Amino acid sequence: MGGVPAWADLENRKKSKRTSSDSDSDEDDDLLCRTGNFVSYSESLPKGILKLRTCLPANQERFADGRLVTVQFHPSAQVVMTAGQDRSVSLFQVDGIRNPRIQSIYLEGFPIHKACFSVDGEQVIATGTHHKMFFVYDMMSGNIIPIERVRGVEERFIRKFEVSPDGSLMLLTGTSGYLHLLSMKTKELIGTMKINGRCTACAFTSDSSKIYSYSKEGEVFIWDVRSRKCLHKFEDEGSLEGVCIAISKNDQYVACGSASGVVNLYTTDVCLKESHPKPVKAIMNLVTSATCVTFNPTTEILAVASRQTDEAVKLVHIPSYTVFSNFPVFRRKQIYLAESMDFSPRSGFFSVANNKGKALLFRYVLI
């Protein structure tokens, strides 16, 4: 693919950072002596109004042809990845102004269901809509590696998956309640777990020691990763059909989104003890099925969305559990059907992938 992109050359970035830090330190000290710390960050995000600025779409230089199924920020570089059902995976440098395209790859005859960065940011894993195989794109070498069969995994299709925060595991959501745990290094099967009913969504805790699996029947099973035993099970209050689940980065909250549109927010300590826990907040701002929930890295915002109706994205302030009233902006339609959402690693950007092939980009405005 033309060699290693400059943004991905970690060794050169480290060297340039070391050489420039010494020369810049004196100038930085001098600047602070003359002007003071002119940019200040609040200790907590205020509720009510969220200061957001709409930027050009993250994939402005290459919109997807049709539905965009994934948008995700790179874990360490200023890069965003998009993947669509047009069989493409694209990388863009995020600056909020031009967002230039870095590169795109095409997976022939492979409409993408989901794509995800590895934790080290060196690979992209992509599953298809009607395939039992998946692809691994090695960004360092430029190779596209097909994983045609995982021994021990007897599934007709492989679509939904999660990567553990420590980067060592990959969890495949199978049919009939089966969960397959793979090694990220070898892509070989480590073990299999099974829930009652059908599993619709899974999430790892931040230390990768536990897995929360959400069933279509509205039950949440908590698994110990090391022993692959079920530690506890609880019922999501009022849920007739579970759809999506997310755990906050500090492991304080669990969000469960159901087909009714209600997103229940729980504290994890209660979920681990009680079989019928009471949510600290039932978020009822969606009128159609909640299909995507995600926390920002600082656990100050919970984003909830439905792909079944236009402009159905809400941002919830934590810990007041109130919805920011100024998002989305209703004067003009721009979000349409939200397929995927993500926050940048330092929460400076928020992106929504829609069914029009765009990865909408919003930036926080510091006051």
Automatic annotation (TrEMBL):
The keyword Ribonucleoprotein does not apply. It holds the Pfam family WD40. SUPFAM superfamilies: WD40 repeat-like. Keywords: Nucleus, Phosphoprotein, Repeat, rRNA processing, WD repeat. One of its GO terms (cellular component) is Pwp2p-containing subcomplex of 90S preribosome. Belongs to the WD repeat UTP18 family. Part of the small subunit (SSU) processome, first precursor of the small eukaryotic ribosomal subunit. During the assembly of the SSU processome in the nucleolus, many ribosome biogenesis factors, an RNA chaperone and ribosomal proteins associate with the nascent pre-rRNA and work in concert to generate RNA folding, modifications, rearrangements and cleavage as well as targeted degradation of pre-ribosomal RNA by the RNA exosome. Involved in nucleolar processing of pre-18S ribosomal RNA. PANTHER family: U3 SMALL NUCLEOLAR RNA-ASSOCIATED PROTEIN 18 HOMOLOG, WD-REPEAT PROTEIN-RELATED. This is U3 small nucleolar RNA-associated protein 18 homolog. It comes from Athene cunicularia. The lineage of its organism: Eukaryota, Metazoa, Chordata, Craniata, Vertebrata.
